[in-house]
Q: What sequence folds into this?
């Protein structure tokens, strides 16, 4: 894909106060995401307004040039990769928090605002934005919306789609639409918002979002339960819900993950234990006391190996940092970490973990499991040496993992998206008819698939494209 | 028009397939609630699918916190089945005793619980849909978290029958809150009620529900409200009512209750009743739900506007220098306001007796001014109901950029255009 000098010139005029990059070194910087795959774009454009986004999209479309929206590129499935070249449209310069209406619990933001920056801006008003992907310090809200990002707190508060009240969108033909802050209450705007959240940049580009905020709970308490058996995780979760409690977070890590964490943090985690369940309750002071006491009772009933209650902010922060840093911690333990993001109905977590351990053994692979026990979202990570034979076995193991979770009524992705890396598996989950229906939606918005091509759907030639694009 | 009552999803799919082949126009009916308040528009269907016989609650799964239901299942029955298992299905449209889950999905119904929990759109995990082509598909998953492809579930919720017929749904359930408490706060004026509601939200509380009723809403059921111990208006100025439901663990509910009592204590002549008897609480919410039929009663014709504005601007439509339009004697015009106070959704009802021409004109003019002021404050008219709905003004037309895309999707799902939305 080459871009004509005329288009280049036009784009420079449109994005007069933003950035247009075409030096090889610059292009390389925008060629990858967290998958460590790399595809070079022909041009990188960083607009400063919705109008500019719309004009760039329209100009590119007229010349048949692909446009790939990009936030902070923390995506783990290849969403922002310019697979067939073209323009990478980076939204990071559009990073203003336009307004916070504290009494209405509403924030109006541009897509390039970093999740953590919105948290910081809302905090003085006693408000927060509940979706908290582990990448919240760097990932952008536009990216969070494109992927329908989750995070530990989503158990109680809901995922990104539950907090998007309205959107301003540039469609693939360059037209601009703003639903306003109450769009979610009215059809057809609600249908558009429903589609856009989680559409991975294939239906349009979000240029402004109206986000619901939530009051910061005045109190919280964290508990850590060490388990003799992995099944106790599921048992404890079940008992907590049965008691009528919905904690803010219910996170777990298996024994292997505990040892890796302990190697790194030296926090005296039980190296013989089968699993650790991290629990956070929040609310008003009175409610938190009561809920924590009830959860203690549940842990006794389930006969956990040890229950630890964080007594200070430092203890609490350490607990959650261990969880938050699990992904990089696990990465250190192998040349390659294949991190999946599967979901099973929450009653089937224990069964899924047993089957995953078993399939890893059969393929001769090391596997670490951790994730969101409360909503059945498991981050299964296969640890692989840089060895072709092991890589091949890992690929088989991943396919089998998906078969296992789908057999249990689960999903191949809970919060990371299909992107490029999982296109083969979409139809496994939703069937040919379901995929066909989604394609019809895509074609109505993005008929030539010029916006973020090769994502979500398996296109002919995609297999060849994936090839050996992994960064060294 | 032929009416068919299918009993299985396959039957629905087959009927749609043959309708598509023949070009027969197809409509869908659930509990029939909408027909009572929204006059039919456009071409009448030639074939009406009445899904009321597909009303089974297939399973309530405690471990997975979900319910599997057929589209014709009545909302209240689903709620009751969930409660029996110690679980909770929050969406509570006012017609919940008769409306169906399929109907709730078709129109994205919500009710007072919207404030803390959200509406139908927030509690549907997945759908079973018969496409206009006659092919069945599933959307979503059994879990709240799944991002495999587009969120077709949210796309279809609220879209009527344009893109297919929902035959079944997987609903998200929550653990039943340990404690529920209903509060009745009687206040002197509508604006006093609105400001208490705002203060509750500012105080960091999110009640399960918080409904604000004006004087005319109270008048149509005054005896029933008085029976709870609320003041009788002739003796005390009790012109608005905040109906609040708190839920959660007991200590938290008690603290919030105390905080709200404190907020009301700062208001002159305010009165707070706490309904500790669950039966009384149930009756209070039932009164709230029968509000619309009570307002309609005895009025030859009526219209209602549902509008929304960010909650802090809830009072924008109400001008202090404009005298109330309709006398309490109720005839010939009856204007009433009620609101989901925490979410900024406002209902404006106008009952009209054309015999009293002048009063009716004044009532309508005043209502239109209110909606105009609401728009001026950034609010939006969501929809209008009732036989006289045209008198309240036009709903804003959605942007063509979006409508064209939806039309394109409709065209590819339903090439012969047989579906009546």
A:
């Amino acid at each position: 894909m080459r871009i004509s000098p005329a288009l280049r010139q036009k784009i420079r005029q449109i994005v007069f106060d933003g950035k247009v990059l075409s030096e090889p070194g610059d292009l390389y910087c925008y060629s990858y995401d967290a998958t460590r795959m790399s595809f070079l774009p022909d041009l990188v454009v960083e607009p400063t307004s919705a109008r500019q986004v719309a004009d760039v999209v329209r100009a590119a479309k007229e010349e048949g040039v692909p446009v790939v929206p990009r936030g902070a590129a923390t995506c783990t499935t290849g969403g922002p990769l310019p697979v067939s070249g073209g323009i990478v449209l980076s939204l990071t310069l559009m990073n203003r928090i336009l307004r916070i209406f504290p009494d209405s619990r509403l924030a109006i933001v541009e897509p390039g605002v970093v999740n953590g920056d919105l948290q910081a801006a809302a905090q003085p008003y006693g408000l927060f934005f509940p979706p908290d992907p582990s990448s919240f310090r760097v990932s952008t809200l536009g990216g969070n919306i494109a992927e329908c990002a989750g995070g530990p707190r989503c158990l109680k508060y809901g995922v990104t789609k539950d907090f998007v009240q309205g959107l301003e969108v540039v469609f693939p033909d360059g037209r601009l639409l703003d639903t306003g802050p109450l769009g979610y209450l009215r059809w057809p705007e609600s249908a558009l918002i429903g589609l856009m959240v989680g559409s991975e940049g294939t239906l349009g580009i979000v240029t402004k979002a109206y986000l619901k905020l939530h009051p910061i709970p005045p109190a919280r308490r964290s508990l850590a339960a060490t388990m003799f058996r992995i099944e106790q995780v599921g048992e404890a979760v079940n008992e907590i819900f049965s008691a009528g409690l919905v904690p803010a977070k219910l996170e777990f890590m298996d024994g292997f993950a505990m040892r890796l964490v302990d190697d790194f943090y030296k926090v005296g985690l039980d190296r013989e234990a089968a699993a650790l369940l991290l629990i956070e309750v929040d609310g008003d002071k009175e409610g938190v006391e009561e809920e924590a006491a009830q959860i203690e009772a549940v842990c006794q009933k389930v006969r956990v190996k040890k229950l630890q209650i964080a007594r200070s902010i430092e203890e609490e922060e350490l607990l959650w940092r261990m969880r938050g840093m699990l992904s990089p911690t696990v990465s250190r333990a192998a040349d390659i970490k294949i991190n999946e993001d599967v979901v099973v109905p929450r009653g089937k977590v224990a069964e899924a973990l047993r089957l995953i351990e078993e399939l890893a053994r059969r393929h001769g692979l090391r596997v670490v499991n951790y994730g969101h026990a409360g909503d059945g979202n498991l981050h299964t990570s296969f640890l692989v040496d840089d060895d072709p034979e092991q890589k091949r076995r890992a690929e088989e193991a991943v396919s089998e993992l998906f078969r296992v979770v789908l057999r249990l009524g689960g999903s191949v992705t809970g919060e990371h998206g299909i992107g490029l890396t999982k296109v083969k598996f979409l139809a496994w989950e939703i069937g040919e008819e379901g995929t066909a229906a989604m394609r019809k939606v895509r074609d109505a918005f993005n008929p030539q698939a010029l916006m973020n091509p090769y994502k979500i759907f398996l296109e002919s030639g995609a297999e060849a494209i994936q090839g050996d694009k992994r960064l060294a | 028009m032929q009416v068919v009552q299918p009993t299985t999803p396959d039957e629905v799919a087959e009927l749609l397939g043959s309708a598509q082949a023949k070009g027969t126009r197809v409509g869908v009916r659930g509990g029939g609630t909408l027909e009572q308040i929204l006059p039919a528009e456009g071409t009448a269907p030639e074939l009406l699918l009445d899904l009321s016989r597909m009303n089974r609650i297939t399973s309530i799964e405690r471990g997975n916190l979900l319910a599997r239901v057929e589209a014709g299942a009545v909302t209240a029955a689903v709620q009751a089945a969930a409660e029996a298992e110690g679980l909770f299905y929050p969406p509570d449209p006012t017609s919940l005793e008769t409306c169906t889950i399929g109907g709730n999905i078709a129109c994205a119904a919500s009710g007072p619980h919207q404030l803390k929990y959200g509406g139908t759109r927030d509690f549907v995990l997945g759908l079973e849909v018969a496409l206009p082509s006659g092919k069945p598909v599933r959307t979503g998953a059994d879990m709240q978290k799944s991002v495999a492809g587009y969120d077709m579930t949210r796309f279809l919720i609220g879209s009527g029958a344009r893109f297919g017929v929902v035959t079944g749904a997987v609903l998200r359930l929550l653990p039943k809150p340990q404690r529920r408490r209903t509060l009745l706060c009687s206040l002197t004026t509508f604006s006093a009620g609105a400001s208490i509601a705002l203060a509750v939200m500012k105080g960091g509380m999110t009640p399960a529900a918080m409904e604000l009723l004006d004087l005319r809403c109270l008048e149509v059921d005054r005896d029933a409200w008085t029976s709870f111990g609320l003041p009788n208006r002739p003796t005390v100025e009790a012109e608005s009512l905040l109906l609040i439901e708190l839920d959660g663990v007991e200590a938290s509910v008690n603290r919030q209750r105390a905080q709200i009592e404190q907020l009301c204590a700062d208001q002159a002549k305010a009165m707070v009743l706490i309904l500790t008897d669950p039966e009384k609480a149930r009756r209070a919410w039932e009164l709230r739900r029968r509000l619309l039929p009570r307002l309609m009663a005895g009025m030859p014709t009526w219209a209602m506007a549902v509008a929304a504005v960010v909650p802090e601007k809830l009072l924008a439509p109400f001008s202090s220098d404009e005298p109330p339009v309709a006398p309490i004697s109720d005839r010939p015009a009856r204007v009433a306001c009620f609101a989901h106070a925490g979410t900024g959704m406002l209902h404006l009802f106008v009952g009209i007796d054309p015999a009293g021409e002048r009063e009716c004109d004044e009532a309508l003019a005043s209502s239109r001014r209110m909606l105009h002021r609401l728009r001026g404050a950034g609010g939006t008219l969501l929809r209008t109901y009732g036989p006289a709905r045209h008198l309240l003004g036009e709903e804003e037309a959605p942007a063509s950029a979006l409508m064209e895309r939806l039309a394109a999707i409709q065209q590819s799902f339903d090439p012969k255009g047989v579906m009546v939305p």
